[in-house]
Amino acid sequence: QLVESGGGSVQAGGSLRLSCAPSGYTSYMGWFRQAPGKEREGIAAIYTGAGTTFYADSVKGRFTISQGNAKNTLYLQMNSLEPEDTAMYYCAAVTRVAGWFRRRPFESDFRAWGQGTQVTVS
Fold first, then answer.
1. Of 22, 46, 84, 86, which is the most buried if we count CB atoms within 10 A?
2. Section 98-107 average pLDDT
């Protein structure tokens, strides 16, 4: 249902942009990441109707979640990348969001997941 793209390898200080294409309508979308040996972390979320965004402290000011003009593509612009950002990145979505979460995303907020795209920062 969700297809991510845009991962790759980059040097510290560089930038990458991830994309995610949902197959249908979504009201709430997010980006997660999981580094080896660590739990999956929600880092950014967007309410697709209002365009309101929320971020984890670990990426605030460096990463930007956004949607395309037709709201059929989700992006994650990642700037000032650090080796600690190395992880598998996942897109997530839900058709009908359960509430107005004024916080970083949690896994339980979502029903659909992408297969992941690897980001490596050296």
1. 46
2. 91
